[in-house]
Specification:
binds oxa(dethia)-CoA; 4-stranded mixed sheet; alpha/beta; Peroxisomal Thiolase, Chain A, domain 1; 10 helices; 327 residues; 5-stranded mixed sheet
């Protein structure tokens, strides 16, 4: 399997740290020094996750030279679906006219895009499907508690996509997925969640004021789990690929916090310039973050033909994943 093309989409509206200073008791200095984030994008009220996902998909299809009728698998990784059902993937399928595809969503929060890549890889390598569209898309602004300074400064909206296709062993193309690690730890479900709005705690007129249908996070616990688990996953992915960290040209990490990226990088003994960052522009866009970063790194020439790149993501679940891809 190889990545034949990438695409991304960010909504137009920019929400800066200065704008947030007017909403909650915070400062640009606090947000910048603790997270690295300067601004984030916010989707329009009538812009659903599937709209952003479709735009990112169209760009990935154009980059890969793939038409809607070629796609036989669509996986959307999202925690902010348009509707409980049908899946956002089916909304995207309709928008694209990709009627030959089987389409479904997966829920793995910020690790979703890498989970989707690894699921699609199994479909393709088994010969079951030939051309997959994988998308990470989230509209976190809709589940953010805009009165909670602990969380509202961190998140943004966006979508990223990739087209994955089969490759034959004798086609002379060295690009492809070299290794993957996928893991989760359900003991940590409570450190990052949207507790209400599902079957466990329905939102009722009586509890609506508690904002249980918004993000609830124990930041320090998430930070610790993220550093420990992703460092181990990165080391395992590099080793399974038969490489060392010196062989990795570009690290494309989940864009949650520059201090988490620094910790991963330092553990892998990688210099700062190897880490691709765009969190200062977009904040944490959950399932979209790694996909958007990959697309930007490819389009700006940071990732070059033949490079080994390390993708890593973590988030609610706790769920995390790492992959080494040769471009
Ligand atoms: O995709 C996964 C998503 N989540 C993450 O990756 C989050 C991982 N965690 C983090 O990135 C960090 O823990 C945060 C950025 C969320 C918080 O940074 P921290 O260095 O862990 O700060 P803290 O939570 O320990 O808070 C330190 C202080 C507290 O004040 P006191 O108790 O020391 O007086 C907070 O109330 O900073 C305060 N604080 C703020 N101050 C200004 C918390 N949020 C803010 C804020 N502005 N926005």
């Amino acid at each position: 399997m190889k990545i034949a093309g990438t695409g991304s989409y960010l909504p137009e509206k920019v929400l800066s740290n200065a704008d947030l200073e007017k909403l909650v008791e915070t400062t640009d200095d606090w947000i910048t020094s603790r997270t690295g984030i300067k601004e984030r994008r916010i989707a329009a009220a009538d812009e659903a996750t599937s709209h952003m996902a479709t735009k990112a998909a169209e760009r990935a299809m154009e980059a890969a030279g793939v038409k809607a009728e070629d796609i036989d698998l669509i996986i959307v990784a999202t925690i902010t679906p348009d509707t409980f059902f049908p899946s956002t993937a089916c909304h995207v399928q309709r928008n694209l006219g990709a009627i030959r595809a089987v389409a479904f969503d997966i829920s793995a929060a910020c690790a979703g895009f890498l989970y989707a890549m690894q699921i699609a890889r199994h479909f393709i390598n088994s010969g079951n499907r030939k051309t997959a569209l994988i998308i990470g898309a989230d509209k976190l602004s809709g589940i953010t508690n805009w009165t909670d300074r602990n969380t509202c400064v961190l998140f943004g909206d966006g979508a990223g996509a990739a087209i994955l296709t089969t490759k034959t062993p004798d086609d002379g193309d060295p690009s492809g997925l070299l290794s993957s690690v996928m893991a989760s730890d359900g003991r940590l479900t409570d450190i990052l969640s949207v507790p209400g709005g599902g079957s466990a705690i329905p939102i009722t007129p009586d509890n609506a004021h508690l904002r249980l249908n918004t993000i609830n996070m124990q930041g320090k616990e998430v930070f610790k789990a993220a550093v420990k688990n992703t460092c181990e996953a990165c080391e395992a992915a590099i080793s399974r690929a038969g490489l060392t960290s010196d062989d990795i040209a570009v690290l494309i990490p989940h864009q949650a916090n520059v201090r988490i990226v620094d910790a991963i990088r330092e553990r892998l003994r990688m210099p700062p310039e190897k880490a691709f960052l765009n969190l200062h522009k977009y904040g944490n866009t959950s399932g979209a973050a790694v996909a958007i970063a990959l697309d930007e790194a490819v389009r700006t020439g940071v990732v070059k033909k033949g490079d080994n790149i390390l993708l890593v993501a973590f988030g609610a679940g706790f769920a995390w994943a790492a992959s080494v891809v040769r471009w």
